[in-house]
Amino acid sequence: MTTIMIAIITALGGVFSANGLWTFLSSKKSKNCELTKMIVGLGHSRICELCEKYIVRGYITQDEYEDLVDYIYTPYKKLGGNGTAEKMVNEVEKLPIIPPQSLSAKEKGKEE
């Protein structure tokens, strides 16, 4: 009889703790979803800001291009970013890529 009681108590404890665990995991997923939305939004804003700057300027340096694509756009796209930023990056890809050493001191001062 005690073996059956122990089994029932163990089973009930497992069910209740699993339910608590499920609630905890669900709330974590919801927070992660909101965090992802915020990160995608910030990425979108930064991509558009940088792309507009480069398009108005008429060129992009190799370092700027690599930073834009490797560190901002690629993760943004993997997180589910939309096509607006992709269109902006496509426009930037049409710009001439200027090596930093070919910029004059005056042009380097304008970049900042």
Structural key phrases:
112 residues; mainly alpha; two-stranded parallel ribbon; 81% helix; 4% strand
Would you write up a description of this structure?
A two-stranded parallel ribbon has the order 1-2. It has 112 residues and is mainly α. The mean pLDDT is 83.
Brief summary:
This protein has helices at 2-57, 62-78, 83-93, 105-111; strands spanning 60-61, 97-98. It has 112 residues and is mainly α.
Ends distance:
79 Å
Total strand segments? 2
Summarize the main sheet: 2 strands, parallel
- Describe the strand arrangement of the main beta sheet, using strand numbers: 1-2
Query: Radius of gyration from the CA trace?
Result: 26 Å
Mean pLDDT: 83
In percent, how much strand structure appears in the residues? Answer: under 5%
Q: Which term fits the overall shape?
A: rod-shaped
The amount of helix comes to: over 70%
User: How does the helix and strand content classify structurally?
Assistant: mainly alpha
Task: List SSEs in N-to-C order.
Answer: HEHHEH
- Stretches with pLDDT under 50, minimum 5 residues: none
Count of helical regions: 4
